[in-house]
Design brief:
The protein is α+β, with helices and mostly antiparallel strands. Helix content is 22%, strand content 34%. Strand 6 and strand 7 form a beta hairpin. The protein starts with a strand and ends with a strand.
Length: 134
């Protein structure tokens, strides 16, 4: 059902500093910041030959990333995103198998302009999973 890894997301307390690390120290191409108010984050993507790294910074005090950074002030891996062909079919199959879909269960539009869903980390070895329809 799942396809390739679309991206690995890292929550960061200071997006410009994180961009400088990936761009200047590691020599990776980094996109421009993109605010996503529906998700409560500002993101940039580090483009790699085999996948992307998404750097997430809280956008507003009610951001889920702000809560994550309270527990891990230096930041850290937040989630992994897998590609799926049909997000509704994937959601229904996973829900029937007992997985919990976060939010209201309906896809939102993600940073790539495609539908995304998040799955509860307790159902996936302690890892928050994002599914993105491609």
């Amino acid at each position: 059902m799942i396809g390739k890894v679309n991206h690995i997301a890292i929550a960061v307390p200071d997006l410009p500093a994180a961009v400088a690390i990936y761009r200047d120290m590691l020599g990776a191409p980094v996109s421009q910041p993109q605010p996503l108010p529906d998700h409560g984050v500002t993101v940039v993507f580090v483009e790699l030959p085999n996948t992307k790294v998404e750097l997430l910074e809280p956008l507003g005090g009610s951001s889920p990333i702000a809560a994550f950074l309270e527990k891990a002030p230096a930041g850290g891996i937040h989630h992994i995103c897998y590609e799926v062909d049909d997000i509704l079919a994937a959601r229904d199959r996973l829900a029937a198998a007992g997985a919990r879909v976060l939010g209201d269960g309906n896809p939102k539009i993600g940073a790539h302009g495609r539908p995304v869903l998040f799955l509860h980390p307790k159902d996936f070895c302690g890892t928050l999973i994002e599914l993105e329809q491609v």
